[in-house]
Amino acid sequence: MPRIPSLAAAAATLAVAALALTGCGTTTVDGAGNNTVAASSQDCSADTTATSTDAVSMTDGVGRTVELEKPAQRIAVLEWQQIEDALTLCVAPVAVSDSAGYSTYVSAETIPEGVADIGTRGEPDLDTLYGANPDLIIVEAFSADDELITTLEKRGVPVLATLGANGADQIGNMKNVFSMIAEATGRTERAEQVLGSFDAYLSDAKAKVQAANMPTSSFLFFDGWIEGGNVVVRPYGKGALFTELGEELGMTAAWTDEIDKSYGSGGVDPAYGLGMTDIEGLTAVGEANLFYSNDDTADSYVKELTKNPIWSALPAVKEDRAYAFPAGVWGAGGPLSCQQAIDAFVNAILQG
Q: Which BP terms in the Gene Ontology apply to this protein (predicted)?
């Protein structure tokens, strides 16, 4: 997950919005660093887009200048969205952070065998990282003085920092991150093709939702976890990626808490649009349709949620308008993860 308080606790701590859908296949790439455009069993095997060999001079997500004599081929990637993005661009990383966590929560792309695991996303094992001989390290940050950037820059390998999130335009930021990685690796033509497909996918899905003539367009997506024996609910408010996707499909966000920089004190955080409440707090959305993460772990919050009489009394639950996303769709991912989320929304609405 992104390294901020609202999402930063590792997968073992939070039941995150990392949910999957079988309708979207994955793009697989072969061994780490063998070739910028690697073979695959699906999209990459048929990819005909060009890879640039020109020198790269670009401004990254936090305003730093990144210059490369040629596009990077041996990239190390320290965040899950960016790992997914690289693989969608048909670029196999030589090293990634927390590959086990990624494989648990992100299904849009599969990390190929032979990629070095460099430990946690916030504190990578530097010996393993540099032992993979990367020519570019891709991180996530919110400012140029991020401590991780400062640490990595001391070793002389170029660092590309992508903006962690943008509560004012999450979909736009998702696209910008994807395009930035493409520019650094010479894969801009591939990125344009993928993003064009994403826009068409979203447009087609919106038409399906409109044709469904839902009883109410109001909706809330949430996930949660167990803390101290109690269910903690994390509603996705204005500025959350899944909320933006739902709005693009023609629905109306039901969680109306204001942005509050002190996340967890009643508002939603400004970067990710996420709030915090309990099961009773869900009564605030009234008649809204409910969508929620459904993790498969032994201590899943869903098991406790569905036992609660407050949950059972919610209008959406009583009227069968509460829809569990299937497990595996990553809630902070790239174009393919977003397409999985779009599918999950649409399938729930049409089957409901």
A: iron coordination entity transport
Q: Strands 218-227, 252-253: parallel, antiparallel or unpaired by DSSP?
A: parallel
188 neighbors 164 (Cβ within 8 angstroms): no
pLDDT, position 85: 97
Query: Which phi-psi region, left, alpha or beta, contains residue 90 (left: φ > 0; alpha: ψ -120 to 50)?
Result: left
pLDDT at 32: 44
Task: Say whether both 156 and 287 belong to one domain.
Answer: no
Whether residue 251 is predicted with pLDDT greater than 50 in this model: the reply is yes
Q: Count other Cβ atoms within 10 Å, centred on residue 156.
A: 7
Report which residue type is found at 291.
F
Q: Which CA distances in Å does 304 have to 38, 229, 274, 319? A: 44, 9, 21, 20
Q: Are residues 118 and 185 in the same domain?
A: yes
**Together in a domain, 229 and 259:** yes
Residue 321, amino acid: R
Torsion, Cα 242 333 193 68, to 10 degrees, reads 140
Question: Where are the alpha helices (H) located in 112-240, listed in sequence order?
Answer: 126-131, 147-153, 170-185, 188-212
206 within domain boundaries:
no
72, pLDDT greater than 60? yes
Range from 26-30, 112-116, 301-305 carrying the lowest mean pLDDT: 26-30
CA–CA dist 47, 39 (Å, integer)? 9
Number of structural domains, the chain? Answer: 2
Whole-angstrom distance, CA of residue 199 vs CA of residue 178 = 14
pLDDT at 14: 32
Domain assignment of residue 97, given as a range: 18-198
CATH number at residue 156: 3.40.50.1980
pTM of the model: 0.86
Position 256 scores a pLDDT of: 84
**DSSP state for residue 275 in the 8-state scheme:** -
- One domain, residues 275 and 154: no
Residue 11 banded pLDDT, cuts 50, 70, 90: very low
8 A C-beta contact, residue 219 and residue 254: yes
